[in-house]
Amino acid sequence: MIDMSTPPLNRRMLLAALLLSLSQTGCHRDSSANLETDRQAKPALRTASQITAEQANLPKLYLTQKTHRQVVAEGNADVVIDPQTGELAFRTWICRNPDCPGRKPGGEPVQFICYDPLYYVKPDGSVDYKIVQDRIAEITRLGGTPWPLCPECLKVRNLANETQEEQRKYVEFCVEYVLPESERRMKELEAEYVHLITKERERRESVK
Ligand SMILES: [Zn+2]
Known about the structure:
The chain is about 45% helix and about 15% strand.
């Protein structure tokens, strides 16, 4: 407690000392304000899980099955709803077969979807998936493809005579399409990850 019997000048000094000690130890708001200032001065490193979460959720291109409308959506869903038409839109794939008949004159690969008719839109507007006995058979029966399959290569393939090796090759030609802006951001995130690992290694070495 402050002794009020001390002369006024000393009381002021005591009060100042008391206020200083309170601001250093007690008040939570003051300490978080200091942290905020520190963070602004030197941006805090994001964690590895924050970086990988952003990588997984980078914008992706989706195509609707019938109208081939393009929908760009963030996140990691297999299927999204086209906000314009309410149709389901599926992730876009490309075929990297150098001899793919769907290749454009400029060499750009054909884009296609891996259509899965077991997805459907519920009355409440959310997406659900039908549970069936034989998923692959049912997808095929309804005109879908259980795994990515280039529709252009399919036109020149002889499925009946293909070896397993040839079949595997066609599956490997199919890769997910990545939007140019997502590809650029992915490179930045990879660099951020490397920076984080380097800083973490430096920190560990400094405390040894
Ligand atoms: Zn192809």
